[in-house]
Amino acid sequence: MNKKFVKYRIVVSIIAIISLVINLIMQLDSTLLNSVTVILPALIVFPFAYESYQDKKWLPFTAYSLIIVLSTLVTIQYIYRFYILYH
């Protein structure tokens, strides 16, 4: 485990837990909260992708990068729908 990303992983884990607890307790149908929940896999996988790239392990790097790109595109779609529906 790379010590460079320990603080990053802790912060992302705390954000993930807080957003999931808020979603469960308040049961919001918020598009913005859903977009945060969708982008979490990209934030969680980023350090693994970076480490795979540094170790020149191309298959895991490609898989992690694909997850990051798909999560980012879905988040952009959520934000676009929010903007179109409410403006």
Please tell me about this protein's structure.
With 87 residues, the protein is mostly helical. It has one domain (3-86). It contains 3 helices and no strands. The protein has helices at 6-26, 31-54, 58-86. Helix 1 (6-26) packs antiparallel against helix 2 (31-54) and helix 2 packs antiparallel against helix 3 (58-86).
Question: How would the blueprint of this fold be written?
Answer:
Layout: H1 6-26, H2 31-54, H3 58-86
Helix pairs in contact: 1-2, 2-3
What's the alpha carbon Rg, rounded to whole Å?
A: 15 Å
Strand content: under 5%
Give the total of beta strands: 0
- Number of helices in the DSSP assignment: 3
H and E string: HHH
Task: Give a short overview.
Helix content is about 85%, strand content about 0%.
What key phrases describe this protein's structure?
87 residues; mainly alpha; 85% helix
